[in-house]
Amino acid sequence: MKITDFINKYDSQNQFQVLRNSCNQISDAWNNKIDLSGLKKNSFSSILFCGLGGSAISGDLLSDYLYGELTIPFNVVRGYNLPSYVNQNTLIIISSYSGNTEETISCFEQALTRKSQIVVITSGGKIEEIASSKKIPVIKIPGGFQPRYALGLGFYSLLKLMQELGFADENKNVTDTINLWKRRSDDFSGENNYALQIAEQLVGFIPVIYSAEYLSSAGYRFKCQLNENAKLHAFYHTLPEMNHNEIVGWESYKEKQFHTKVIYLLDKEYNPQIIKRFDTLKELLAGQAIEILTISSNEKNRKVRIMDLIFLADWISFYASVLRGFDPSEIDFINRMKQRLT
In 3-state terms, what secondary structure has residue 95? Predict the structure, then answer.
C-alpha cells in the first residue's frame, strides 16, 4: 500500500491537511491583535502558565525558546492548585484550548481569589465566560482543532503576548518559521519523505527519546504526540539527568523483553559536555545492540531549529499512527476519562 492509502483509510478528520496548513496557524496567532488594557505591565515578579496536555506544551516550549533570555521566573503548572507564592504580583496565564479543562478552571478561580494579574488564551468555553465577566484580557484563538494539532495557535499566541509585554522581540524568527513550515509541509507530504522514513523505522518498536537543554520540550512533545496520535507507548528523558539514573537500566536490556529504539534530538549548540555525554551514551548502548536514530536541524537560528524539530516530530507521529492502523484523531481513553469525571 502507498502511504496515501493508509491516510485515506485511517485519517478520519483529515489531520494530514491540518498539518500541511500549520504555518497558517502561526500567521493567524501573530497577526491577532491583543488587548491588554487593565493589565499592569512591568509589575510582575514571576509568570505562571497554567494548562494541561496540548494546551500546556506551549509553556514548556516558551521556556526553551527564550532559553537564557527571560529576566523573571517562568513556570508551568499542570494540575488543580497554584503554588503558595502566587500573589497580586504574579502574572497568571490561563491556557485551555477548549476553555473547559477542569484543572485549569480550578487554577483560574484560585488566581482570582489571590488577585493575581491574569491573561487567558482560549477558543471559548467556561474559561472565556469567566474572563469576560471579570473583564480579564482574553486572547481568542480559532476553535475546531484538537489541542495537540493547534500548537501554532497556542504557542505563537503566547509568544506574541510575551512580545507585547516586552519579554521578546521575535518578528524575524516568526517570519522565518512560517516560511520553514511552508517548505516542510511540502517536504513531509510526499511519498517516501523523511518524516515517513523515520515513522517506518518505529513500527514495532517502543521509542525512547533523549534530548537536552533547550530541546527538552521538543523531546517531551515528541513523546506525547506518539502517545496520542499513534497510540504508542513512548518514553522520554533529558541529558545530563538520565546519566545519573536511567542509564543504568540499559545494563539489563534484553530485546525480547523491551523491543525499543532510541531517538536522539541533537543540536550543534548544545554544551560541549552534553555532546560528549550523547557520544558516550551511544557507545554504551551499542554494546547492548540498541539502535539509535539521530534527528537534528540544520537551520542557522537556534529558535527556528527548535520549531523545525517540533514540526518534524508532529509529522512522524502522524505517519506512525496511520502505518500502525490507528486514527490520528481518536483519543478514546482520554474522552472516557473525562466522562467518568463529570
Answer: strand
